[in-house]
Amino acid sequence: RDFLQEARTLGRLRDPNIVRLLGVCGGPGPLCIVTEYMEHGDLHQFLGGPRGHALSLATLVHLGAQIAAGMRFLAARNFVHRDLATRNCLVGEGLRVKVADFGMSRSLYGTEYCRVRGRALLPIRWMAWESILW
């Protein structure tokens, strides 16, 4: 039920700096979401690779501005991201960066999350201390 609610919400978001949800696969097997293809993968891996090390300061500022634009779009719609990080930003053609966060697909970074009260996955390592105390 949480998965389908997240998919419905993501399906309504339309912005050049938000990853577009194309479809949902459900049924007796695993639940999956289908998003647009972002050829360079997540920003964390991209910046750590050979191309990331060669980026100019102006290009890095442009990447950050795209992320900020995506977050501004979400904030204008009262949508709280809760986990903005380079692992949740995807890089596509022409160094277009789009904010993504699909809580159900964390296998690559699964060790960076802690399950709270048996349900919610939280990025404890990256959270502000006051959020952890709350």
Q: Any overview of this molecule?
A:
This protein has one domain: Transferase(Phosphotransferase) domain 1 (Transferase(Phosphotransferase), domain 1, Orthogonal Bundle), CATH 1.10.510. With 134 residues, the protein is an alpha+beta fold. Residues 104-109 have low confidence and may be disordered. It is globular and about 45 Å long. The protein is built from five helices and six strands. It has helices spanning 2-11, 43-48, 50-53, 57-76, 129-133, and strands at 21-25, 32-35, 89-91, 97-99, 114-116, 120-122. The strands form three sheets. The protein has a two-stranded antiparallel ribbon. A two-stranded antiparallel ribbon has the order 3-4. The chain has a two-stranded antiparallel sheet with strand order 5-6. Strand 5 and strand 6 form a beta hairpin.
Keywords for this structure?
two-stranded antiparallel sheet, 16% strand, alpha+beta, 6 strands, globular, two-stranded antiparallel ribbon, 134 residues, Transferase(Phosphotransferase), domain 1
